[in-house]
UniProtKB/TrEMBL annotation, chains A, B:
Pathway terms, separated by semicolons: Cofactor biosynthesis; pyrroloquinoline quinone biosynthesis
Keyword list, A-Z: PQQ biosynthesis, Transport
Protein family according to the UniProt entry: Belongs to the PqqB family.
Residue ranges constituting the Metallo-beta-lactamase domain according to the UniProt record: 4-200
Role of this protein: May be involved in the transport of PQQ or its precursor to the periplasm.
A Gene Ontology BP annotation from the UniProt entry: pyrroloquinoline quinone biosynthetic process
Protein name, UniProt field: Coenzyme PQQ synthesis protein B
A Pfam family: Lactamase_B_2
Keyword Secreted: no
Lineage: Bacteria, Pseudomonadati, Pseudomonadota, Alphaproteobacteria, Rhodospirillales
Organism, as annotated: Azospirillum baldaniorum
InterPro entries: Metallo-B-lactamas (IPR001279), PQQ_synth_PqqB (IPR011842), RibonucZ/Hydroxyglut_hydro (IPR036866)
Chain coiled-coil ranges: none
Length: 233, 233
């Protein structure tokens, strides 16, 4: 008997690496799908996502900037609340309108999640895509117990130099790990207790166990996420 | 350096198991994509497939009922020709119009491929989806050296009995392997030299090495495809 333990999904972006996973969860099994109206609009506009049967996998609107309690497809609430908020990012690459300023990005294209235990004070941030660290975001993350953060590239132009793509990390809506404008520098001094890079591109040398780049990230207090990682708050 | 050895793809259907693979071939690398106008229309209507950059992965129309020579993205022809022809099948499930007869299927929804060596007489048929074996199709396959054929289910209602779905194989556009209307019976007496089941659902007991169903298929001269299988004509 086929089974997925995943009872709900929260989509923080409509780009392919954030939505294609739905296509592998398409068996006839309950699943609650949360997203902004903007991202739900992309799912609606692409009939291929109907393979995740909306009768069994209800699509639910996710409000921004106020906490809400997610529930499974049957309506049973989870023991945590989520607050979603827009962060600097980008419209999905395949939806770009080259004639529009910023390639057509709007505020709901890329969101961060703050997830908090409803029965305690444990909380963490999940921010797999973020293209800049404005002061308000740094203030918001200050002293957080755990932040999972966008680790797409080590340097902004690494995909071009590796010959695997023509776009910079910034052009794809991501800040690099390294450099004066990078995430490692941006988090320095914020006092975040545990910092974990996620959403790491396969051109990023920090993925390699024995790379000097990984050693540099670890020396700055970062961890590199791996499959099966578990967190206790 | 990321690399895919796949230089071209021929889509025989727009259902998710025939098109979702494109989303994992999306790196910036040349790829020729052949399909009927009907299937290309589905790719066009689902912007998510633009992640396979049409500038690098040209979408080419595939004619039915006459041989053509495929070429890679740069235009270099392959040493074989393809003839595509419609077989009994179904519109992609996620595109069904319940108000239309046959759920809206049209002739180009499901096609078979005959692939023939341009420098010799080797040829084979690739038919991953087929819901019935009319006389004209049996005649066409008679004495073929190799046929790769739709092996989705063993019995028509196995997904319902397994509790993994609400649809029969027929309802999904597939003929079962077993039974008087099944593919094993339909191929008996056709004199096909090598018969290989492909596109096998994970509810099909013939997938299991030690099942009586697999033994029964083998006894009737069939092979069960596996990853990495190679064929010499």
């Amino acid at each position: 008997m086929r089974h997925s333990p995943i009872a709900a999904a929260v989509l923080t972006n409509a780009d392919i690496d954030h939505v294609a996973g739905l296509l592998t969860l398409r068996e006839s099994q309950p699943l609650a799908v949360y997203a902004t109206d903007r991202v739900h609009g992309v799912l609606e506009a692409n009939a291929v996502f109907r393979v995740v049967n909306p009768d069994l996998a209800p699509r639910r609107a996710m409000a921004l900037d106020r906490p809400w309690v997610p529930a499974d497809a049957a309506g049973t609430p989870f023991p945590f609340e989520i607050e979603a908020f827009a962060v600097p990012g980008k419209v999905a690459l395949y939806l770009e309108d080259p004639s529009a300023a910023g390639f057509g990005s709007v505020a709901e294209d890329t969101v961060a999640l703050r997830i908090r235990d409803r029965n305690g004070d444990g909380e963490f941030f999940y921010i797999p895509g973020c293209s800049a660290m404005p002061g308000w975001l740094a203030d918001r993350l200050r002293a957080a117990p755990l932040v999972l953060f966008d680790g797409t590239t080590w340097t902004d132009d690494e995909m071009i130099r590796a010959g695997t793509g023509s776009k910079t990390g910034q052009r794809m809506g991501h800040m690099a790990m390294s450099g004066p404008d990078g995430s490692i520098a941006a988090f320095a001094g914020l006092g975040v207790r545990r910092k974990v890079f996620v959403h790491i591109n396969n051109t990023n040398p920090a993925l390699l166990d024995d790379s000097p780049e990984r050693a540099a990230a670890i020396a700055e207090g970062w961890e590199i996420a791996h499959d099966g990682m578990e967190f206790t708050l």
